[in-house]
């Protein structure tokens, strides 16, 4: 009787190993690549004609300063100027933080500077989808700006 039960035990272990292997192959071959796949984006959008420059001007950290992100409202067209560069020309570190912190471009990923943009440094982002949103500097919330990204009108 023990020879039969050990044979059945061996078949059960073998079935678990095969089942696990099939699950791992499915996960790594089909599920994972599809979940990590980026959408197809045209070369014109990924390599626009020019960049949009936004400056964090000197004294932006002062709440009395009317201007800080210059320009404050920017209209951007995909394929024309959808690569945006924020230059910190102030002597204080700043951030580029979306008001909706879950803002994400399906190709370029999560929007927002990863930490502070130090004086003399820049933060860059390429938008690939139409969207309108507002952003601010986290340490200086009076520093605000708005971007409107639209399809190009070729």
Helical amount: 25-40%
Unreliable segments (pLDDT under 50, ≥5 consecutive)?
none
Q: Given the C-alpha coordinates, what overall shape results? A: elongated
Distance between the ends = 81 Å
Strand content: 25-35%
Care to describe what's here?
The structure is a single chain. The chain is of the alpha+beta class. It has helices at residues 2-36, 43-46; strands at 51-56, 69-70, 73-77, 83-88, 97-98, 104-105, 109-110, 122-126, 131-136, 144-150. A hairpin with a 3-residue loop joins strand 6 and strand 7 (109-110). The mean pLDDT is 88.
Helix-strand blueprint:
Elements: H1 2-36, H2 43-46, E1 51-56, E2 69-70, E3 73-77, E4 83-88, E5 97-98, E6 104-105, E7 109-110, E8 122-126, E9 131-136, E10 144-150
Parallel strand pairs: 1-4, 3-10
Antiparallel strand pairs: 1-2, 4-8, 5-9, 6-7, 9-10
How do you describe this structure in short?
This protein has 154 residues and is an alpha+beta fold. The chain folds into 2 domains: 1-37; 43-150, Cupredoxins -  blue copper proteins (Immunoglobulin-like, Sandwich), CATH 2.60.40.
Features of the shown structure:
alpha+beta, 2 helices, 2 domains, 25% helix, elongated, 4-stranded mixed sheet, 28% strand, Immunoglobulin-like, 154 residues
């Amino acid at each position: 009787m023990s020879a039969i039960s050990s044979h059945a035990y061996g078949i059960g272990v073998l079935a678990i190993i095969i089942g696990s292997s099939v699950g791992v192959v499915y996960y790594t071959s089909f599920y994972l690549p599809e979940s990590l796949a980026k959408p197809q984006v045209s070369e014109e959008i990924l390599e626009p004609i020019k960049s949009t420059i936004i400056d964090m001007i000197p004294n932006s950290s002062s709440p009395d300063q009317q201007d800080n992100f210059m320009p404050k409202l920017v209209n951007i067209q995909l394929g024309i100027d959808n690569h945006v560069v924020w230059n910190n020309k102030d002597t204080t570190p700043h951030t580029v933080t979306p008001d909706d912190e879950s803002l994400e471009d399906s190709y370029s990923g999560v929007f927002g500077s990863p930490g502070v943009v130090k004086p003399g440094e820049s933060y860059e982002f390429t938008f690939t989808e139409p969207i309108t949103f507002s952003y601010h500097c986290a340490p200086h919330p009076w520093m605000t700006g708005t971007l409107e990204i639209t399809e190009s009108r070729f």
